Amino acid sequence: PLGARYSIDAVLNRAKNLNNIADNTFFNTATIGYVFLIISVYVVSGLQKSGVDWTITGNAIYYALSLDQILQPVGKLIYPYQEFLRITTFIVLYVELFVPLLLLIPVFNTFFRIVVIVIIVGLHIGIALTLFVGLFFIIGICAMVAFLPPSIMDRFDIATFKLREKISSQIERINGGLSFKMMIISFPAIS
After folding, report:
1. Smallest Cα–Cα separation from 95: which of 49, 26, 151, 164?
2. Number of helices and strands in the chain (H, E)
3. How many CA atoms lie within 13 A of 185 on its CB side?
4. 186: part of which helix (H) or strand (E)?
5. Which residues contact 67 (CB under 8 A, 6 or more apart)?
6. Residues 144-164: b if buried by 16+ CB within 10 A, e if exposed
7. If pLDDT is split at 50, 70 and 90, which confidence band does 183 have?
8. What is the DSSP-derived secondary structure letter of residue 120?
């Protein structure tokens, strides 16, 4: 389902007129599994933060920022503010435990998805600005793209149409005029 619109297969199917997708939403056992996978990643991570430094003293982020090998410039900047780091420790813990569960709320689904996306992406950006964690933050942010509501994905499609056409023509030119048109990869929303 995530590749039904913007994957290489979708582009090839479009060239053969096999892709007639009328709806931007998709719901089946795989989408349920994806939602529960994302929820479990954050909730289990939050449950594992059961030590005293996370639950009572709130020193966990302070200790993490004391590791000079992975410290980023913003981490150096906020390291002296131990009370701020204590509050941030508790915020991270509660965000991981409870915010992903908002994906299960069946009413005002679009609103709650946007709230989850904004908070989780903010969490990952905050981690990336303070600690060097490799590709972790990019993977976390990309995992949230699948939860974007159809209305936002439609706007993205409209806004990027000219860019996608330009890239397609460049790929076509590079490939010697093959009947293959490349599109930018993005994802339909999961209902």
Report:
1. 49
2. 9, 2
3. 9
4. none
5. 131
6. bbbbbbbebbeebbeeeeeeb
7. very low
8. H
Q: What is the pLDDT of residue 127?
A: 95
Determine the Cα–Cα distance for residues 105 and 112; give it in Å rounded to an integer: 7
User: Exposure pattern of 49-69 as b/e (b: 16+ CB <10 Å)?
Assistant: eeeebbeeebbbbbebbeeee
In order, the DSSP letters of 30-99 are HHHHHHHHHHHHHHHHHHH--SHHHHTS--HHHHHHT-TTTB-HHHHHHTT-HHHHHHHHHHHHHHHHHG
* Cβ atoms 156, 135 nearer than 8 A: no
CA angle, 188 then 119 then 130, to 5°: 115
Q: Distances in Å between the alpha carbon of 137 and those of 33, 121, 148, 149, 171?
A: 22, 8, 18, 21, 30
Q: Nearest 5°: phi and psi at 31?
A: -70, -35
The residue type at 57 = T
**Token pair 């508790």: residue:** 90
Q: What is the pTM of this model?
A: 0.76
Q: Is the pLDDT of residue 7 over 90?
A: no
| pLDDT for residue 172 | 63
Interhelix angle 136-145/109-130, rounded to 10 degrees, is 170
- Say how far residue 134 (Cα) sits from the centre of its chain: 16
**Tokens matching residue 154:** 């439609």
Instruction: Please say whether the beta carbons of 2 and 187 come within 8 A.
Output: yes
